[in-house]
Specification:
globular
Length: 377
């Protein structure tokens, strides 16, 4: 995955690892003016087409796997199942991305439709829609703020845990990456791991969690009901079809969705060129610009381009995915050196960030003492 390891692009900077500037000479208004007006238009019909398209593809994958894999000789079945899991997880990740768009009110002009579609899609993929919508909104409002961001908050050198130092070697990195990809999202939802530190325990299922405001608590309960309904439906499926069938056909692809989501967001927010800020230096546009686009090759389209339009998304989150590439290209001349896309092959990039991005510290000789950069051990 990725575009052949191309490490530089004349239009996007000479060195992909070179630090981005921190003081933009443009405003959010300047960026919006550069985008064609139709890019802001949301069509419920067009958005619904992508939902139906992905559901049909997901059903085709299910039908082929359920019908033909059991007929294969054992060695071939062992090879066929991972192919199904990858394909199904990929297309379901596209549906998850559409649910994410609903949370940003980018699906249609009607909030009720957006929330209804997002609730169904995310619940089916074991994601509490409203709970995650609100914590994700906080992330967008406080991106790369060391004090107020909701997720991917790196540690300073003095606070790097002993186990992180022990795992700072190739086998340890493999373990860390596998752990992050498989358990990172469930643990974030359940324990707020890698998230903002609150005065007490916080998670995405407790309506009284400090993550949420008073008016949001009832919708957290609705999210919980959605997850409980899916758990109950899964239980009925297990009783009817067996645990092995449900695991192979449904649960492993859903785990794959969570893995893709963690991989995508980890790479969007973890890079040697990206700064983090404490409260003395942070402002909204600085934070929003402190992300990077990634190239997932053919999966860019499957994931509805969320992978390589993330910088745009953090600046203007309500542009629907089918206009995102055009809008991104429209603001690139305004962004100039503030825009970066890293086309390093995904597995290589994942390994590099796990090795190089261990802790953050400000530069000793810099006047920006509240601006922090990644370092390795």
């Amino acid at each position: 995955m990725g575009a052949g390891g191309r490490m530089s692009d004349p239009s996007e900077g000479k060195n992909i690892l070179e630090r981005v500037p921190i003081d933009p000479p443009f405003s959010l208004s300047d960026l919006k003016k550069a985008i064609p007006a139709h890019c802001f238009e949301r069509s419920v019909i067009r958005s619904s087409y992508y939902v139906v398209h992905d559901l049909i593809v997901a059903y085709v994958f299910y039908f082929l796997a359920n019908t033909y894999i059991p007929l294969l000789p054992t060695p071939w079945a062992y090879l066929a199942w991972p192919v199904y899991w990858f394909c199904q997880a990929s297309i379901l990740t596209g549906l998850w991305v559409i649910g994410h768009e609903c949370g940003h009110h980018a699906f249609s002009d009607y909030q009720l439709i957006d929330d209804a579609v997002g609730f169904v899609l995310h619940s089916a993929l074991y994601t509490p829609y409203f709970s995650w919508k609100y914590s994700h909104r906080n992330h967008h409002a406080n991106t790369n703020s060391l004090d107020n961001d909701e997720v991917y908050i790196p540690k300073r050198k003095a606070k790097v845990a002993v186990y992180s130092k022990l795992l700072n070697n190739p086998p340890g990195r493999v373990f860390t990456l596998v752990f992050r990809l498989t358990l990172g999202f469930p643990l974030y939802l359940l324990t707020n791991i890698s998230g903002k530190k609150y005065g007490r325990f916080a998670n995405h299922f407790d309506p009284l969690s400090p993550i949420f405001t008073e008016r949001e608590r009832i919708q957290v309960v609705i999210s919980d009901i959605g997850i409980l309904a899916v758990l109950y439906a899964t239980k009925l499926l297990v009783e009817a079809k067996g645990a092995a069938w449900v695991t192979s056909m449904y649960l492993i692809p859903v785990l794959g969705v969570h893995m893709f989501f963690v991989l995508i967001t980890y790479l969007h927010h973890t890079h040697l060129s990206l700064p983090h800020y404490d409260s003395t230096e942070w402002n909204w546009i600085r934070g929003a610009l402190s992300t990077i686009d990634r190239d997932f090759g053919f999966l860019n389209r499957v994931f509805h381009d969320v992978t390589h339009t993330h910088v745009l998304h953090h600046l203007i989150s309500y542009i629907p995915h089918y206009h995102a590439k055009e809008a991104r290209d429209a603001i690139k001349p305004v962004l100039g050196e503030f825009y970066k896309i890293d086309r390093t092959p995904i597995f290589k990039a994942m390994w590099r960030e796990a090795k190089e991005c261990i802790y953050i510290e400000p530069d000793e000789d810099s006047e920006h003492k509240g601006t922090y950069w990644y370092h390795k051990m």
